[in-house]
Queue: 2 jobs
Job 1
Amino acid sequence: MTPITANDALHDFWDSAQLPALIDGLVEHGWYVGEGFLDVTLCRELREELERLHHLAALQEAAIGRGDERTLRRDIRGDAIHWLDRESLAQRRYLALMGELQQQINVALYAGLFEFEAHFAHYPPGAFYRKHYDSFRGRANRIISTVLYLNPDWPTDGGGEMALYDEHDTEREVARVHPEAGTFACFLSDRIPHEVLPTRLPRVSIAGWFRRNASLGGVIDPAR
Ligand code: OGA
Ligand code: MN
């Protein structure tokens, strides 16, 4: 197993020239979308790993809500997931990049981001994820949401776009993200409503969240 160190040439795996625009986007609108953000080979390795997990039936149907309120609601959310667990070099590379991004965002925005959690997601044909926020104001420990898309040559009529809505005018769509491999989106978890439109083809991605530690009264916030 090759350990990933700070010296690993991370710049080989992402287009870090997009960082200033990413920071600006978060500050100005609360969101950013960059095409060709991540190296195609790393995206392919991540997609192959997700497809292996899918074929091994190692994905779990995604639930909504937390704690006692967790339920399966196919009418709200239709993906199946697997939490990243550092099993593969590709995962460790991606997590190292997100660690670097976390540091960059903290330096630029004093955001106090503390950790990153992420899962692979597989949407079968017909699946969608209705409009939602990734966290709620006040109890937000998910601060910034991220999505990396892994679908090479996604057709224009493939569906499965992510629609982002305006922070203040939540009915106004402000971006529609084609889930093409290498495209990376991020947005403020408690500000930006978003949805996954019904997909026509199997659709693969990695959804992740930068978190702040929300320990309260000696109770450590659970990781998931
Ligand atoms: C999510 C989510 C968007 C996407 O998993 O919370 O909104 O495009 N995903 O996969
Ligand atoms: Mn979401």
Job 2
Amino acid sequence: MLELLEVPGLGPKTAKLLTERLRISSVEQLERAARSHRLQRLPGFQAKKEENLLKGVAVLKKGRERMHLGVALPLARELLARLQRVPGVTAVSTAGSLRRMKETIGDLDLLVASRAPERVRDAFCRSPFSARVLAAGPTKSSILTPDGLQVDLRVVAPDGFGAALQYFTGSKEHNVRLRELAIRRGLKVNEYGVFRTKTNRRIAGREEDSVYRALGLAWIPPELREDGGEIDAAKTGRLPTLVEPRDIRGDFHIHTTWSDGSDSLETVAKAGERLGYQYLAICDHSPSLKVAHGMTVQRLRRQMTQIRTLNARAARFRLLMGAEVDILADGRMDYPDKVLAELDFVVGAIHSGFRQSEAVLTRRLIAAMRNPYVTLIAHPTGRLMGQREPYPLDLDAVCAAANDTGTALEINAYPKRLDLSDAAARRAGDAGVMLAISTDTHSIDQLDHMAIGLGVARRAWLSPRQLLNCLSRSRLLAWIARKRRRLAG
Ligand code: DGT
Ligand code: CA
Ligand code: CA
């Protein structure tokens, strides 16, 4: 029954009915029964309900097939640290979709340079991460981790590391384009290097950047290698200056024990200071979100007092007084304007009424953006990978309103959200919208999800000037004040 409860939209009552009446205990059995319309024999089961359960199964299966970055990144980090220590290893790197920071990863690809490949293979296949060895050759091995995730390892000679890294980073589509370009220039690219077609002489391959240079291109950051115009941009010197970790001055949308977070204001402040940030915006929930212990106005004001006290002790770092405020079904905010005006930073979020139509949801978000005090729209499409599809939204209209009102849109870095997605964030960025990466942190270890949000921002071709996080504290506050002045008068 527990497995059935993982299906989005399937509650305990239905699960009980399914196990007792139809002896269904797995997601696979449920899918088969729904497809052959056996569920409709149960009391109270209409075709619509059967259809909805099938949709839930599809969402769940999609989430299971591929791992999200929150799982893949730490796993890769640990494996690489282990391989780095094997004698004879001169370089290690991630490759494939993880190096490109795609939002979900099919299998993990790792690349190692070494003159003693057998030692690397043995260390890999005998590590505690290997529950089953699928292949163990001198240059290519594959394992399954105890959680059933596949990891592919390739070991190459040090003088071909760059070419192999380029090749195994992909994407396949990017590599196809690159090979076409090479042929037009009388060259050949493969996993061993760049060669002149006529003489078969190798002209590049030790460093990845030499591969691109040999083809007349600037080095292309892995996050852009999706055949989305990056090769033309590299040819003509129009690659964006992508945002880097060191550009990030702070984080927004942080929860504490005042609502549903697990760390105190003080702990969060210390963690932000340790990260070298100038600011963290504390954004606990508003009263409508009862399940998350939303704060009454009175409690919010008590929290503000405590933040002021903490800030008085800090030297360079500051907590910003904020809130994650529900956007109600009719587009009004869950705190009155005069309370919002007391805050430094206001995140507007939809947490209910996901089934409204596209027109209504779009109007609702735009109404929130017209509020002078709303700084940022959180997780604009509401998706939760493996759990909930995004709700329908007119993204172009939302972007236009964001520009009009001076409101930023969020790239929520929580691994199951990544909302806006890379594609949507690129569209918003192209439309001139200001974006913000927030970790939506509920415990301080999640502040590290910034790296994942940065991956999305980079895949969206974003530069520091397009991100709120890259503003110094005083510029950030000035940016917020401008909207308030313009719309509140
Ligand atoms: P994934 O694993 O589905 O998230 O996506 P990738 O991009 O990691 O794909 P994967 O693991 O099949 O292959 C890793 C990289 O190897 C891929 O990005 C491009 C490169 N590659 C080069 N030639 C080929 C080829 O003939 N087939 C495949 N599948 N990949 C190739
Ligand atoms: Ca892969
Ligand atoms: Ca692979």
